[in-house]
Structure formats: structure tokens, C-alpha cells
Task: structure prediction
Amino acid sequence: MTDLEQRFRRLGKYELHQLLGEGAMGIVWKAYDTVLRRFVALKLLSASFRKTKEMQERFLREARAAGAIQHANIVTVYDLGEAEGQLFIAMELVEGRDLSDMIALRDPLALERKLDITMEVLAGLQFAHQRGVIHRDVKPSNVRVMPDGRIKIMDFGIARLQKADATGGSGAIVGTPTYMAPEQITNGAITPATDVFSVGCMLYELLCYQRPFQAESVHGVLYQVLTTEPRPLRTVAPSIPAALERVVAKAMNKVPHERYESAGQMMSTLQQIRAALSGADEEATQPLGRWTPLPQPMLKLITHASMRARLAVLAALAAVVALLVYAPAQPADEPTPAASGPVIPPSAAQPGGLVAPAPAPGSPPVSLAVSQRRDSALSARDRAIAAGAQKNSVPSLLLAQSILETSDRALQRGDQSLALRGYVESAQRYGQAREEARAMDLEAQRMIERVTPVVQALPTGRAASNAGVFLARAESLLRVQDFTLAKVAAQSAEQIGIEAGIAPPSAQPRDARGAIDVLLSDLARALSSQRISNIRVLYPGLTDEERRGWEAFFREWSQITTKFAMEDFKVHGATATANVRAMFQYVPQRGGAPRVDRRRFAMRFERKDVGWRLAAVTELK
Result:
């Protein structure tokens, strides 16, 4: 064995020289390729993840996604393989500093340099997006600034092929909370606009050295991303041009289609601002938006109006567009014939004044079956929207809308058979969207009901006040059908309760006996905590007399452990009764040997929407 072989551990053809870092998925070594004779960054899947097929597939997806793109601003993937049971990716070894380090140290970068860094990031992302790859975790620590000033985007570790999976899929939140787009949190569609949002957050931080979304907990950050606008950039860094502030605000818009259409479009806007920094007026540096036929005053009004008002205006505009597009053109000097072609019966008109597209001239009249199916699809759409599907970006609603529009185009071409099948399918999808929205509604309701006793159990003080604000916000969001945001707000309230020592109830099985066994286990833990608040969460009807009795026990007992055993268990619909034998082991507060206290109780239980709860307790002599 040579001295070199003794000095460095080998993995296949690679010599592992220096540990460079460790992340969520694996560790990275500076390694030497003994065949091609060059240093590489060798990423190894960590042992804890290597055991699961899901993580192995994710690791391979990283390599394939990144390996499919070759760009000056993206770290190059050289090799993918497995040696000694270890999966690895060999990548370009990039020297330099992470942008996160430069921000943390507040490097005195010129504004032009900050824009150059951001534009290079956008150039790399635009290249990847054009090849169907979304990075999904753009952040300063994944941007390396090389010694020569060039930029490299690193770690396409959670990139996903856009054409292979347009949504979050598993439902797991993937990304870094501070830089995540709202649709990543709500498991919505992942598009290039998702990366644009992250770049907007990164540029905000780079410009003022403060993160746009900051909170004491992850829940707090997620809630801010979903509901709160960051402080206007120029209130944090007054020297920033107003045009640049508008660019950042647009990139961080919470509605994906209201951001820049692409990374390339945002990059072009930044290029204009950079070129205009030397003396150009503010209007010259204003970001270019999408063309709109609306006058500027009306556009500003819609921008700041409520969602309901926006929909009303857009519906009216769509009606006008539909009339302009589908109305047959008539020569100016000819009278309009009584019937220029078959027309959809009035029953097929869409709610709000939108009429169905007329078929092509010369096509047979639209059959009654097609008209009725279209009516059914539109009715199903209205029911889905009324249930909150549109407000919560339910994926099935977007699919249904796409099918409906395709069917309308088929009808316009005269293909009534295709249109009929599409209307049937869209009605089914709208029905599915309605059920998904109802499920989200029910889940948010249950979360709020579960959290309410936790918040009510908090003693007065700052924690109780903050939790109460979150709970009230959750209830308000539920009323306006923002189910996802309502659930996040309720979770924030619950987190405050947990941090204050209030234990939320455990999940209960469906059968009553098993559910009440879980409830009694929770009650035993509540007694061990010696907190009346924890008892009240499980026993909402706790009387003042009972509270004083338990407080007396807690003054006399410490280190309490409890075991419950049920006898004569009976269920009567939503109520249940049982005689319960309790064995308390404790140490007297004044000291001494552990003691045992045995008692029997008659207990009554009630089934609530959130599970079974204790309704009454009577001690048996």
C-alpha cells in the first residue's frame, strides 16, 4: 500500500481529501478523481437517508436534473454512481464564498455589483427553467461567488422536473421557509415563478441586509410568507431607487401569475435599472409590466381592490373579450342577417353574462345534450368556487378550468363530440375540487377546535394574548374561506401554547374505547405536569370546586404518575360512561418516601368534533 493510499480514504476512483460541508441530504467532500486527475466536489447521500427508497430517488433526481443543464452560472455535474453501497454525485469544485456569508458580514458591495450578482443568478435559472427544471431552494447559501467574481448556483438538491411533476406531489413542504414561495407552503403548482419569488427575497436581503420575513418560529415565518407583506424596501434602505423597490415587490408578489413571467423578464428589468442608475429619471427605470388594455387609473384601482372586486372587473372584461372574439364580423354596408349561424341556446350562457362560444359558420346546430352538459359543468364550477376551491388554489379546479376552456374551443370548431366529453369531464373535476375544498374546510375547522381549549387554558399574559390573536385570525380566515391560512394561524396559536407548557390532546382512533383510552393517557400526563391548564384542555367543563381540589393535591403531591383502568364501559351515541380505577404514585411535597393512592371515579365522556373529551367526574366511595 502506497503512502498516498494510506493517507486518503478511497471511494471507487475518488480519493476523499477534505470534508467541505454537510447538508440535509448528505455530506460534501473535496475529492480527487484518480482517472481524470482533477479535484471535484463529491456529494454522498447520508446514511440516515440512504436507507429509504424515497430519499435515494430524490438524490438521483438531483443529479439527473442538474446534469441535464450546462450553464456558466450553474455548478456542473460530472458523474453519478454508486461504490461500496454509497451513492455519490461528482460535481465541479467551485472555490469562493457563499453569498450568505457576504450578507452576514455586510460586505460593502456597490449597488451595481448586487444587481450583477442577481442578474447572473436569474440567467442561470432562466436556462434551467427553459429545460423544465425548477430549483425550488434558491437562497444566498446556494449562491457561490467565485474569486473572479462569477456566480454559480449550487445544490439543485430539491429540484424537480417541471414536466414530470407540476405540483408539490407528496404534500411535504420542501424548501427553506424564509425564501419559500406561498405555493410551496400550500402545496400548489411549482413553476418558474416559484424561483422568481425566492430571488426576490434574496435580492431584498442583499439590498438591505435584512430578511423580508422574520419570526421567532418556523410557523411564524410561514405565516408571514402567506399573509404579511414585508416592510417596503425603501423604509429599510432609503437610498434604493424606487424602481428597484418595485421590482423586488413584484418578484415577491404572493400571487404567482402577478410576478414576473420568467426569470429572464426579471433579469431584463434589472438590466434596464442598472443601465439607468447614472442619472436616469425614475420613469425611465420603471419596470416593464405586461401590456393591458385597461387605463392606468383603473389598473391601479384593481391592483389595490379586494379579490371579489377584481373578479367582478375581470369577469366584465372577459365578457367584452368574448363578444369581440366570437361575434361574427359584418361588412359595414350589409345588414346583419337574422341568423348568421347556429347559436348556443340561452340556457348555455355562463353566469355573469359570459355566453358560450358560437360554433364555426356552417356547423350543425348545437345539440341540446351539449348545452345541458355545459350548463352542468358551469353549475359544478360555481358550487366549487362557493366551497372555496378557487380561493385556496385547489389543483382540481385549475384542471377543470383547463378542460372547460378546451371544450369551448372544440365547440367553436364544431367538434361537438369532443366538447361533450370535455364538459362531462370538467363537471366531474369541478365536483372533485368542491370535495377537496370541503375537506380543507373541515381540516381547518378541526384544527381550530383542537387549538381553542389550548389557548383558553393559557394563563393571562403575553403568551395568552399572542395565541389569542392568532386564534382570532384563524377564525376570521376560516369565515372568508382561506382554509390554508386559517390552519397555519391555528398552528401558530398551538405552538405558543406548547412553548408555554400546554400539551395539545393526542390524536384518537375511531373506536370509542380506544379513543377514551388515549384521552385517559393524556389526562395522566396532564396530572404529571401539575398544570390545571392541561387538565382543562381535556376536561373543558372543569368546575371551580374540582379545580381547587386538584390544586390542593398539587400543593401536597409532587412527581405524580397516574394509571387509569376502565370498568363497565358503555357507549350511548355521542356519550360514554365508565367506572375508572386510578392509581396515583407520588412523593409528598414536604419530602419522604414515595406513596400510592388508589381511588375510583365515575366518569362521563362526550364526543366532540375534535374527539372525545371528559364531561363529568364523580369520586366513588
About this structure: Residues 1-6, 161-172, 279-306, 319-354 have pLDDT under 50 and may be disordered. Residues 356-502 form one domain.
